[in-house]
Amino acid sequence: MEGIVEWQKPSEALPSSYKSKTLVESKEQLEALNALAQSISLRWNADRRDDNPPEIMRCIYFDLEQLSNGTKRFLNMKLYKEFLIYSQTQAKVEDFKRVFSIWEDFSSKMLSILQTMLTGVLRREIDAVLRIKLARTATKLLEKPKILGDNCSFSPPWKETLELLEEFHVRSFDGALFVGKEVREQHLRVLVTLLLCFRYYLNSTCEEAIFSHPLFTSVPHVVPNDANVHLLEKLDWENPVKAIEQLASASLILPCHSSSILSWIPDAVSLWMKINNSHDWDRLWLRLFGRIAKQQPHSIDWSPYLHIIYDRILSCFQISTREGARRSQSIIKTPLNVSCLVRGDSVSSAAEFIVYSLTPMNPSSLDLFLQLVQIIEPFYHPNHLEHNQHFVSSFLSSCTRNLLNRLSSERKATRENVIERIQGSRTITAVAPREHRLTELWFENIVSKLYNLAEHSLYSKSSKSTQEAANSIGNLCAVLPQVIVPKVVLSSQDDFVSLTMPHRTKATLKALGVICPILSDSQLFPQGVEYILQLLPYLLPCVDINDSTKTKLAIDIVIALSYRFKDIFDDQPQVLEDFVLQWIERVIHFLENIETPAKLGHAKISPLGFDTFGNFCEVFFQNCPESLMFGLCEKISKIISASASSEALKHYGIMIFWIAKSYPRCLDSLFIKPLLLQIQDSSHLLRKEDSSNEELYGLLRLMANAVRGFADSQFSGNILQVALAAMKETDRKLYKAGSRLLRSLLEGLCSTTLGNCVDSSCTQHWNIPNSKHWDRAVNCVEQILKHLDSFLFSKDPEELLRDEMCKERIFSTARTLHALQRGGRWLLAGAFDGSVSKDSQVNVSVLKGPLHAGMFGEMNGDLTTELWKKVFQRILRLIEICCKYFPDNAIACYRILSPVEMGNEAFRFDSRLRKVMNQAKNYKQSMQALVVAKYGPNEVGKNMPLIYQRWRMECLHRKRQGYCAKGGYMEPQLTNCLLNYLKEFCFSEFSKVRSRARNALICALRLTPFYQRWTHLESLFESIQTCIATCEEEKVIACLELLQHPFLIRFFTKYYYWIKKLVLIILQSSEISERHDVVVSLSSLFGKFLSQVHPLILSSKTKSEMDDAQPRYGNDMEELQSILNMLYSVVFSSESLIWNGNWKVQAFVFSLVYVLYRPECVIPDEYLFQLMKYLCSEVMIVRAVVQRTIHLILQLSNIQQNEKWKRIMNHMLSDDSFELSLLRTLCQDLSIHDPNEQAADSSPHRNMLSATTLSLASSFFSESLDASTCWIVDGGEPWPLGYFGRPVHDLVSLRHIRLLSRLLSLVDTQTLFQVHHVAFSLLDSEQLRDQIVTPKIKHLIFGELTVALIVNLEDSSGTIQCAVDWMKHLLSCFVDADSLSTIETLFRLLYQQQPKKYASYQLFWEYLLSAVSHCDGWNHSSLNIARLLRTLFALVADQFPSHRHLIEQNRDSFLSLIEKLTDSKYLSHDFEQVREEVARLLCCLMLDDNSGGALNSFTTSTKVVHRLSSILQKWRQQGDVDDRSKKQLSNTRHTLSLLVYKCAHLRGPLHPLFDSHLVQIWLSLLLDAKEDSDVDVAAQTTNALSCCARCLVPSPNMESILMELCKENLHSSSFKVRGGTVSFFQMWIFFHFFCLSNNVFALQELLLEYLFDDSVEVREAASRSLISLAGLNPTEVLETWSHRMIHILETNDRKSGTSREDDSRIRLRHGAVLGASALILSQPFAILPWMPSLLVQVAYCIHDVPPISTCVRTMFSEFWRSHYDEWSKQKQMFEPGQLEAFNELLIAPSYYA
């Protein structure tokens, strides 16, 4: 038994006998890693000195991989901890000085290793998979800053890493090699994480470089190197998507702890406001500001910006305004190649900013926070079913978590008397100066508000919201436990006794579960025992056989409360004793009743998980006082002994195991001896006469669990004899139980485990096997092997076959060998074989060097090796017997594979260890802030509960054991024989046999040395090819299942040698894949291969130049070329039959060419001709792949290859038949598409695949070949970015246009004319007629081809007019209304592809203007006008903001166009499409005002608004007498609403239309449009007003304008206008509440007047608006309004004002009732002090005449729905008289009438 461990950190403690060994091991590991890093650096430097370009060779690749693996192992094993502990304690003991002298220059060595890995990350020659490994290890090292030292001078390569990230992911659409989806996603994650780590290592030099670095140079008015330009001023905010991309890149590296960042906060806030319609934009800024507020607490005065930021924060919740409009609509869709950089969640970032911006020096910060809480409070109630409930719940948990972190850091700083502000860094948490720290009064105020929200949300119907609320309560309890704990305990007692709402019990249990760590910590909350005693009686009924979830929650609570058992026992021992006994009785009763046999064909699933029950037993029994344990164990022994055949047998076994570990002294007397007496008698080892086999099986299993936890039993000899006797039995249950008993006996003897520690003050200790234990284990193994020889292996085969129980003997032997492997894994491991490193010159310490983990092989390697050989010789003999005599017996083949466990497989992390490790991590994360505040830094591990310390120690030790057991091959001959057998079983016809053999084979290959692995894989591929050649489909499936294992796929994709073999297997399998399951397996293999494939290093060395250790690498360039040649021969060879038939093979081949192609490869000319012909394939999937392949080859081709392509293209396109076939297949691509799939917001692989009927073939293509950010998704950028997005309903294929443009760029002008002539002549030809090729599709393909032709025309005088003529032909092809979006897309693409060809666009512009000017707005074809206007829009849409060349050169015609469009003929046109096009074009043309400064009478916006105003006034005056004028008035109103709607969506508040001078003119006209009789016009006006409310930014001028408008419309003659005014102002106030001045209260008072309008509709609209507005106001305002409504009701009482003749009194009374209803419903889940009197007063109106009585009934129906759950508490807010009157009125018969 080990003594007290001397380590200072129990969480990293190991047995002290390992201490000196681990230090030596650490030294060797560190020196080996440092030497390897220096060797790599020297070789890189040598490469740079050569004349040839630097090239990373395979040897350096291998060294880098070993460096990464070795460093990761060094960090995982925490070998550096000893050095850190010593450096912190400054120990003066001479022994410690001598031991730690080996760590000299520790930090410098680790820094050298880090720099070498970072150099490897940044080398472009490194392939992506190796870069991922290096970046992960470097990140793990950077996350431990103490390793590098506090004075580390490390300068991170942030600039190079950021450039690599943008090059590889953001800008990879312009022609990049294919990278598999999984590799690409991992590559993105590791680089982003690495950049985030860099931020904390930036010195002043790096910060200056960041803020002066020209990250963003796309803005023309910014000089990139101008030192006076701030970083964020370089953002191209006029291009929203571009700005998001730039800000996302910058946010990854910006050092928010730097003082340099403070200077641009005002500019940053201003810049944030410039984009109003992007959720990603808001998310990035909130994330950035949250980090600044946290890392530089109160370095900035946030007061001037808080109102603006809170206004944006409210938009993150997407809260409804109760008028159908959401708070925020994310209009701008961020492309995938940009959105991958956007990090963080907006709600959690908002919570972070709010908490860290609070300061007592600025009380308004708290006021704004409380206002925000008041607004969102109704959304926390359980009856609230809004879609955004998860937003508010996550906000609450984020707020409380950040509040706890801030509290801990400030309390720690106060305790250490830190007065000044501490700047944040990688080692120091930032803290505010003393005057800015939150006071206890502030904390109490904030906690009380947040607790109310958490309490409401706790009972939500969403389990996620409930858990978030429980976590929030836990955080608040950590902040103020003396306030929160009593509240939670008191409310839980009410919920436990509630019978009508059982869901509240579960919610309460979740809340108690998160506060239990506080209750169980005697130092954090000393008075916890008092509340635990209150809870214990209520927990007993929670063990419910009808509700396993509630039982599990209750058990988790008892686990946490067990840590206070000692304190409870000292205080009230009898209470604890009664609870413990009753609790165990209830748990056992639960197990006996809940466990029932599984249904036939279904696996048994326990309602109480074994891991959870094991954790409970471990904690419960180890914390029970010793004086209680004997009686408890005696009681358990009696119950369990009588229940040996129970279905709860495994649970009982777990209970006995932990009793053995916790209280071993009672084990022999209470468990082992009684069990032996039941199992044995005086004459027989097994008492079979009195016991059934089922009962014996149960007793043996219970015995096994008792022995596993306690090996030093005085009955160990009897136990071994019982195990041998059971294994000799032929009954399956008995020999299985016997083998389990043997396994447990060996495990108890050999395992190194943590001992029990009852006293919480003592240190953990270890139970380490001594020599006696090892000798007994060796003797046990020898006896078992002798038993197996006599039982099976020594028998004659013929005699064995004649035995009726032969199979049972084989099965029993397999179980016994499995028990030897599992139970004796400590005995058979630890003898490291140095041959594992002979294939490399790298130090053994870097690879799988010896680890000291308590294995027998560390002490006696020879004996361990001998035992391992004996065991595996018998395993091989057993497999040989089965293969020879029972080859067709699936059960036998399956069971003999059970003992095959390789190396560290026996020490892998099981599910329980993963769960308990996660629990320990979660506890550390949740309690870290509180523990640090109370105990100081680096004390979290010390002060966590002992069980978490135990779990962390066990997991660390298991890691060491896993590494130690990797050297598990002591005899290569046995290993090779075993692998050969496993390969045979992998091709079995039985699926379960294949699965088990495959897992064993992969595990063996993982641990096999590299040179042996290569040989085994060669043999494996030979076997696979043989199986496929037989064409037996079951064997083919087996081969494909084996090859798609992740380990093999990752290994194969590292070498072109293996890729070639894998490609050959895929092609061979595709030729014979006819069955559905074969096709599925093949598609799965191909998809996994595509997800992992990536460009590899092309080594040019020959085999003779390679090292002897790596003879098979060969010439990678030759291997790759041979793969491509093989693929070419399959589809291009004239002898191949594939050409005539198998489309699946064609799809596979061309996909492989696409993913493997490199520009260094050579494609013969004849193959290029054949490849072009495949563009006309009849199979869609083949065409799609070929199009991508050709586009990629062209994009990566060099000058010499371009010349070859020019010859080919000129030859191919000179053939009219080829062009006809190409056009026909392109038509077919678009013919099967749903038009909605071409929408701008559809998925990235919408083109040509999503609608295909070839589901299996397209599945792997879409998901694997189409990596989400791969450039070839559309052959270029997703869509040219500008103000206007892509039209929604166009059918244009971007891939078609870009492919055709690239192909036609290689031909001369004459060929271009010929292609256009042929295409135009074939447009109406019969040759293109097809059942699915409609005229619309033909015109669309012609349009795409025309765009590609015009783009490639030379800009000469002879071609300009031709280009214009082609544009006219293109325009004339589309004559229907559905083609307007297609026209826009084609012409916008045309302009964006070649924006510098001004001459042709100039002529076409003049042509369009002439056509529009000659059109009569009334009589000319309306569709033609709409078509011309849409084309004009397409030409100018993308000229903003900075490319106004066409407009500037045609300023006069531009102004004349505006005059034309603002004529009444167009603004009041009868055709709706024309009006929409006019609005769209005017919206675009008005953007020209952005560059002209202040608005004046000559600007476009002013002209448009004044013309609209004059026309509307004109038609309004004539509308009463002339129906035609009335129609024109309606049309003009529709145009105005369309214009406002489009301008709001385009630029939001920055659009010139929303200038206050113009708003004063058109807003009243827009509100007047609400009275229009046309339903469509009224609906469009409502949408426009909703958008307008978002875009009118509050300012003194704007507020005064709107106030006057509200007063004016109060007396409007139209009730629709008055109702629309109320709704508009309600939305405007809601959207901009935090930015409004005090005038908002006057405006709301004015809106209250609408409650008493003459129209019932207006009064009801005002009531609906008041519901939303009331929630924004403080309680004092609501109370004032309440008194006002009561006064009106009292002065206009029912008796004097209910006659129908007195309409004025009814109006006033109805308005007051509506107002009162709105005030009541604005607080849907609470009873405020002013509400009871108002409710009673409204209840008095229930007998009034309609509509008053109707309103009252409706209000009380809604009131009762929302208050029913908590009415028992809320009714206490009423006085007795009020409650009596209230109930009397509501329960009256008239209420239900």
Task: Explain what you see.
By secondary structure, this protein is mainly alpha-helical. Among the domains are: about 1-155; about 510-595; about 610-760; about 1695-1790, no CATH class. Helices cover about 65% and strands about 0% of the residues. It is built from 83 helices and two strands. The protein has a two-stranded antiparallel sheet with strand order 1-2. The radius of gyration is 40 Å and the shape is globular. One of its GO terms (molecular function) is peptidase activator activity. This is Proteasome activator subunit 4.
Beta-strand portion reads under 5%
Determine Rg (CA atoms, Å). 40 Å
Mean pLDDT: 79
Helix content: 55-70%
In total, how many beta strands? 2
Number of helices: 83
Contiguous low-pLDDT stretches (5 residues minimum) are 1-13, 49-54, 88-97, 215-230, 323-330, 597-605, 836-842, 1101-1113, 1233-1275, 1788-1793
Question: What's the shape?
Answer: globular
Biggest sheet details: 2 strands, antiparallel
Question: First CA to last CA: what distance?
Answer: 83 Å
- Look at the helices and sheets and give the structural class: mainly alpha
- Adjacency order of strands in the biggest sheet: 1-2
Protein traits:
mainly alpha, disordered C terminus, 1793 residues, two-stranded antiparallel ribbon, disordered N terminus
